[in-house]
């Protein structure tokens, strides 16, 4: 089944003009906490429907980080026509805005091939940038400022910096109910680096996305079962060679202080390699940090859907469990315009 029959088109950074021959794309999005089965659901849907997958995961963009990011295998990436994986090296950075621009081009190209885009959300910030647009920075944030704020996070704690954000940018702080430390740091460094609140910049320097019809599928499995899955997946990750993968990255010359190597799993593997943490403790710490991350994702997802203009299907289940959403998705993709 093909949704649209038409020729390949050139891709522009500008949203394409919409017409009968160039209809507004219909885009599927799968979101959910880590280990909730998003990838399994995406693969099952792609078996049944003409879909191409866009991975919106802020760690799967890095080459060489495969085991610790639960990256799809090369065979899966080929079979399901993945985009968004292995885009840069660990010592490079990619903003949500840059990723969104790429995703908009991928969406246009996928639709031009007669298929539908399926975004699998590992990073809420990336998904939000694709669906809602993003803010471009007036200039570069000094590295010294970022380093000072990170040091303050370690010495003063997340709650102190959040209270500071409430004073400097109360509108933004009200949206950060999960008190995600990376988002707090981002907001503070923007304020001190540019002299204006990020919430104001989001109105002034906003890049709007091209028109899309969106159906969001959100997975909310029962938490205790999810935490057990996280524990099992963490053990499997370490048994599959996380330490060896991390050693290879360090031997390739990548510094252990790189932001991506301080994320869950890699930081613990580096601690094991440097003799600072026993293996058993490293595995348990990885599982604990992942559980805490999943808890924050639950909170973020609940708030993200409160004012979303797109259609939303909430499933109280794992993505690899049987469901009846195939017919719903088919209707969404194939309904008359």
Could you walk me through the main structural features you see in this protein, from its secondary elements to its overall organization?
- With 337 residues, the chain is an alpha/beta fold.
- It has two domains: 26-135 and 212-241 and 293-334, Rossmann fold; 143-204, Histone, subunit A.
- It is 49% helix and 10% strand.
- It has helices at 38-48, 74-79, 96-112, 124-132, 143-156, 158-168, 170-175, 181-194, 198-204, 223-239, 242-251, 266-273, 279-304, 325-334; strands at 26-31, 51-56, 116-121, 134-135, 206-207, 213-219, 311-315.
- The strands form two sheets. Strands 2-3-1-6-7 form a five-stranded parallel beta sheet, sandwiched between helices.
- α12 (266-273) runs antiparallel to α13 (279-304).
- The longest helix has 26 residues, at 279-304.
- The protein starts with 25 loop residues before the first strand and ends with a helix.
- Mean pLDDT is 88; it is low at 1-20.
Give the SSE map.
Layout: E1 26-31, H1 38-48, E2 51-56, H2 74-79, H3 96-112, E3 116-121, H4 124-132, E4 134-135, H5 143-156, H6 158-168, H7 170-175, H8 181-194, H9 198-204, E5 206-207, E6 213-219, H10 223-239, H11 242-251, H12 266-273, H13 279-304, E7 311-315, H14 325-334
Parallel strand pairs: 1-3, 1-6, 2-3, 6-7
Antiparallel strand pairs: 4-5
């Amino acid at each position: 089944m093909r949704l649209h029959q038409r020729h390949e088109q050139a891709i522009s950074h500008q949203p394409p003009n919409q017409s009968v021959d160039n209809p507004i794309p219909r885009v599927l999005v799968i979101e959910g906490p880590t280990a909730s089965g998003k990838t399994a659901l995406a693969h099952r849907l792609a078996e049944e429907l003409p879909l191409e997958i866009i991975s919106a995961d802020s760690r799967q963009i890095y080459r060489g980080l495969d085991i610790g990011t639960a990256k799809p295998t090369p065979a899966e990436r080929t079979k399901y026509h993945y985009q968004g994986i292995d885009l840069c090296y660990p010592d490079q950075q990619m903003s949500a805005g840059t990723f969104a621009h790429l995703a908009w081009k991928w969406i246009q190209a996928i639709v031009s091939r007669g298929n539908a885009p399926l975004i699998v959300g590992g990073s809420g910030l990336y998904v939000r940038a694709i669906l809602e647009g993003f803010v471009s920075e007036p200039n570069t944030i000094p590295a010294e400022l970022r380093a000072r704020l990170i040091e303050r996070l370690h010495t003063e704690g997340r709650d102190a910096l959040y209270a500071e954000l409430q004073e400097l940018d109360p509108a933004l702080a009200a949206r950060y109910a999960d008190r995600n430390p990376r988002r707090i740091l981002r907001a503070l460094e923007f304020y001190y680096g540019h002299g204006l609140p990020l919430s104001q910049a989001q109105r002034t320097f906003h890049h709007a996305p091209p028109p899309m019809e969106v159906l969001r599928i959100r997975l909310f499995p029962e938490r205790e079962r999810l935490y057990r899955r996280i524990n099992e997946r963490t053990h499997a990750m370490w048994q599959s060679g996380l330490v060896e993968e991390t050693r290879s990255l360090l031997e390739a010359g990548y510094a252990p202080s790189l932001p991506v190597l301080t994320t869950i799993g890699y930081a613990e593997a580096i601690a094991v390699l440097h003799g600072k943490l026993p293996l058993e403790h490293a595995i348990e710490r990885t599982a604990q940090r992942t559980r805490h991350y999943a808890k924050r994702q639950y909170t973020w997802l609940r708030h993200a859907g409160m004012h979303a203009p797109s259609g939303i299907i909430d499933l109280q289940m794992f993505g690899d469990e049987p469901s009846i959403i195939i017919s719903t998705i088919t209707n969404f993709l194939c309904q008359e315009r």
